[in-house]
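hey m, so remember when u said the tokens were messed up on ur end? i reran from scratch. heres the input so u can diff it against urs
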Amino acid sequence: QRSYEVGLEIAKRLVAADESNADYQRDLSVSYNKIGDIAVAQGQLENAQRSYEAMLEIRKQLVAADKSNAEYQRDLSISFDKIGDIAKSQGQLVDAKRSYEAGLEIRKRLAAADKSNAKYQRDLSISYDRLGDIAVAQGQLANAQRSYEAGLEIRKRLAAADEVNADYQRDIAVSLWKLVEIDSQGHNWQLVYAQLQKMKDNGILAPSDERFLQTAKENAEREAITNPSSGNAE
């Protein structure tokens, strides 16, 4: 934390000496982001919120000054996510949804403008995932399903283009898991189990995810007994 605070002070001085320097401004926003992350890890949500809001304001200014800069746009979307995460942690679901939606709109534009950019596409899937979580928390399961399914479709495309990418494959498992948990039609524990087992067979399942594989298998076995048409976990 001390190192980040020193970095923040240096970034502040550089910006003060040359306020028109966009690189210095972005570096300052990154420093606020790091300080915010530390505050979150320490459970100091109000401090984190202040840091993230400072970051957000800088990034809004950078985007306003250079609307065609995709990097600044992506930075801004990340800032909205961080603000949304804090609001969600504080139970402020309406505020969280508003922030996530702001990030979603940016990511839609970036993904549409560069369809071959996997990073932008994955960012978009994460936005849908976050909005799905908010909808679940608000009891709006139909909205949650739509968001999760939109994210899942993106994730399937990414995984199909890069089958050995562990992150893409895990993302699919996460989407399927969330859809099953809200009793979404067309999704079942067998699909979750099959996805995680495929990852294990391909040597890309993280050791920390072994417990999810076991849970999915057990749920799929119970599901097969109560609903034989859903398939069998073998």
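this time it looks ok to me. The chain has a mean pLDDT of 94. if urs says something different then somethings off w ur setup not the seq
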